[in-house]
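Person: I have long wanted to understand how a fold can be written as tokens. Underneath my words sits a plain record pairing an amino acid chain with its backbone structure tokens. Those tokens are not coordinates but codes from a learned vocabulary of shapes. I should like you to check that the lines agree and flag anything odd. The protein I mean follows directly.
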Amino acid sequence: MARAFVTRLVSRECKDCDCVYVGQTSRALKTRMKEHAKAIATLDKNSLLAKHHMLNGHQIDLENVENCRQIIGVETTTNS
């Protein structure tokens, strides 16, 4: 069975240091950015961006997101 997929690699930068977060998502970029913003606002302990913000008091640049690459492919699975 084959399934088409789209994966986006994106990067976000810290406004206060040289740290760069590179992530991967199959969802719309706008949707993922809203999720990151919410995680930072609510200090979500499962979010690496929120952890960086909490531990260092740094601000993450969610406005200038770089869409590094879009990968479109086909995933195949075999039924055993």
